[in-house]
Design goal:
The complex is a heterodimer. Chain A is α+β, with helices and mostly antiparallel strands. Chain A is built from 13 helices and four strands. The longest helix of chain A is centred in the C-terminal third of the chain and has 25 residues. The C terminus of chain A is likely disordered. Chain B is an alpha/beta fold. Chain B is built from eight helices and twelve strands. In chain B, α1 packs across α2. The N and C termini of chain B lie far apart (60 Å). The C terminus of chain B is likely disordered. Classes of the chains: A alpha+beta, B alpha/beta. At the A-B interface, α1, α4, α5, α11 and α12 of A face α3 and β11 of B.
């Protein structure tokens, strides 16, 4: 008998066995190692760590492998693991000014102290498929120069020296954590930046792009983008001073945006800020654009565009939430659907009865509706 | 990289304490949506993470857990959540409503009346009953604070004006303890009367939306309606073709590719219990059910 379908449990187990089989694929092809993923798909690992809010290359590589390369699934796996970890507190602010820089470029000054450091980048490459990569080839080690310890001053600091850009007020008290407290609106900038750092790259990219096309335009210049290694410090209560925990790779974007000021205040540039784990300039720039767009109200600008709508942006940026809710439509809904069917039949029956009475040809009606 | 060791029922004790505080507040203010710091769970948002967190926080080693989805213990999501708690908490599970101390549900309230020793945990996708009338949380919270529910009545009235009926068939809004308008989760409105004056504690968890709310035992729960258009629960006009029940909510099942249909209880435990007691569907019921069309 068809009814009251039993055996759900076994069906699920079989489906999972099929998944494991498909994940492994052709057994004649060597299996991927985590080190291979970490090294050769490093930017994918970076993204998973950033949106997964957990800096652990090995776990992120495992997540990518387990998710068969599905980035959002990998992010989800890392988030679910992160939940189970105890939280000791917040680190000291990452001193990106003293970053061990691998790449630092500015679009606002032709040259500046420290210079333009191009570093490893796709920029300026021709996007031609490189067939020599297909079969694997030896790559000669890249030339490097000895590091010198000159810190790269941030472009916004250079502008700030002469008061040309707004000062960033330090935040008093604890920074928020939206993984421990539910987000409420209006959200502080700390929570907003946390939300954006965890947010979906594609969603933020599209929102940032929309501001460039006039939906909440804020005249951005890429003041500076830097990528490199930053030390993370944590003040342990027992010790009483900041203890280094290790280093993380980060990408930081400082956008320089249109002026504020007027009669009572000298005009100056405003800022948009983006900071993400690993190397992702696209994401850091998108975060900076959206961060600036979301400051519209604070800066007294007209705010009618999607990227300027805090509740809209922050409520829909999380791809783990979004994918869960979209994909939950795959779950059975037949109880609710039955109720709708019942009502619809009732309404149709009433319609038919009325039509009979008034001698209306229901077929004509149906055809009209279909057209 | 170390292999993770999970606490009883997955969540750490700190998190459980935080959720229990939210639950206590929710019980103290019936129908009010309490924000809580919802955690990422190892199942997707929209698949019961709120309910799972509530269950994980109230579950003890002696509890007996039942999990249903669409009234059934054997649907994929119910199986998955039940297995999750077997794995992480090692609690005893059951499919019998009467044996369970905690029942987690999606979209149904069991047919068998609940008792004072039971807790019913609902999975909630959108906790805000006003959400589809006003998308902004800042606005809806204000509306709740001021008991400003006119918009909801206007919506129901517009349904009547357009269709002659209130066109909400599930997630039908209720008023709890004469104060808060509440979304009972997407249960069919057939189930709404079971919420009223219920001896069991009813808890609602919305993970993605980070809200918990509650109906304490023996609380008045009224489905919104109008004097001239009173609330009426809907049920297919048929009997279950397996156990003959004429009082249970029915699922319509299509049995062949010519559209032949039959009706069976949505609550599989209720149906099985009745059949074990010797109830059978009267002969010819299939025809009668078909005529209902």
């Amino acid at each position: 008998m068809y009814v009251a379908v039993k055996g759900g449990e076994r069906a699920i187990e079989n489906a999972h066995a099929l998944l494991a089989d498909a994940r492994r694929g052709d057994r004649d092809v060597p299996e991927l190692s985590l080190a291979q993923i970490d090294n050769q798909l490093a930017l994918g690992v970076d993204r998973v760590m950033c949106e997964g809010s957990l800096y652990d290359r090995e776990l992120a590589a495992l997540a990518v492998k387990q998710a068969r390369g599905d980035m959002i699934e990998a992010i989800f796996l890392l988030r679910a693991y992160r939940t189970t970890l105890p939280r000791f507190g917040a680190s000291e602010p990452a001193a990106t000014g003293t970053m061990d820089v691998r790449r630092r470029i500015s679009a606002t000054f032709k040259d500046l102290p420290g210079g333009q450091v191009l570093g490893p980048t796709f920029d300026y490459t021709h996007r031609l498929l490189d067939h020599t990569l297909a079969d694997g080839s030896d790559v000669a080690p890249a030339a490097t120069a000895p590091a010198d310890d000159t810190p790269f001053r941030s472009v916004t600091d250079l502008l700030g020296d002469s008061g040309l850009i707004e000062r960033e007020a330090a935040q008093d008290g604890d920074v928020g954590d939206l993984t421990r407290e539910p987000l409420s609106f209006p959200a502080g900038r700390d929570l907003r930046l946390q939300n954006l750092a965890r947010g979906d790259e594609g969603f933020l990219l599209a929102l940032g792009y929309s501001t460039q096309r006039g939906y909440g335009r804020n005249h951005p210049f890429a003041g500076e983008i830097r990528f490199g290694e930053v030390e993370v410090e944590f003040v342990a209560e027992d010790v009483g001073f900041a203890v280094p925990l290790g280093t993380v790779f980060m990408t930081e974007c400082q956008m320089v945006n249109q002026f504020t000021g007027g009669l009572t205040e000298a005009p100056r540039f405003t800022r948009g800020y983006g900071l993400v784990f690993g190397q992702s300039e696209r994401k850091a720039m998108a975060v900076a654009l959206v961060d600036r767009a979301l400051r519209a109200r604070e800066l007294g600008e007209e705010a009618g565009s999607p990227a300027q709508d805090e509740e809209f942006v922050l409520s829909h940026s999380d791809n783990v939430q979004a994918t869960g809710f979209v994909e939950h439509l795959k779950l059975p809904h037949y109880v609710d659907f039955q109720s709708e069917l019942g009502l619809l039949r009732k309404l149709r029956a009433e319609f038919a009865a009325r039509a009979d009475q008034n001698d209306i040809d229901t077929n004509t009606y149906v055809r009209d509706a279909a057209e | 990289m170390t292999a993770p060791v999970y606490n009883f029922a997955y969540l750490d004790e700190q998190t459980k304490r935080m959720i229990r505080r939210a639950i206590l507040k929710a019980i103290a203010v019936p129908g009010y949506q309490v924000p809580f710091a919802s955690r990422e769970m190892p199942m997707p948002y929209g698949w019961g993470t709120g309910g799972v967190q509530v269950t994980a926080s109230i579950l003890g080693p002696d509890d007996v857990l039942k999990v249903i989805d669409q009234g059934s213990d054997d649907t994929t999501n119910a199986v998955s959540i039940r297995k999750f708690f077997v794995k992480t908490a090692g609690v005893r599970t059951t499919t019998a409503t009467v044996e369970a101390s905690v029942i987690q549900t999606r979209h149904r309230v069991p047919e068998t009346p609940l008792t004072e020793t039971q807790v019913l945990v609902y999975q909630v996708p959108i906790p805000e009953p006003l959400r589809f009338l006003e998308p902004r949380e800042t606005e809806t919270r204000r509306m709740h604070a001021l008991s400003e529910y006119g918009l909801m009545h206007v919506k129901l009235y517009e349904d009547i004006a357009r269709h002659g009926h209130i066109a909400t068939t599930y997630a039908y809004p209720v008023k709890v303890d004469d104060r808060y308008v509440m979304d009972p989760s997407p249960i069919p409105k057939f189930d709404n009367p079971k919420l009223n004056d219920c001896p069991a504690l009813q808890l609602f968890g919305a993970g993605r939306e980070k809200r918990i709310y509650a109906i304490p035992p023996y609380t008045q729960v009224v489905s919104l309606d109008f004097e001239d258009h009173p609330f009426e629960p809907y049920r297919h006009n048929a009997r279950c073709e397996l156990c003959g029940a004429d009082d249970s909510y029915l699922d319509e099942v299509i049995t062949d590719d010519r559209g032949t249909r039959m009706f069976v209880c949505s609550d599989t435990d209720y149906c099985e219990t009745r059949r074990a007691l010797g109830h059978v569907a009267p002969a010819g019921e299939t025809e009668a059910a078909r005529d209902e069309r």
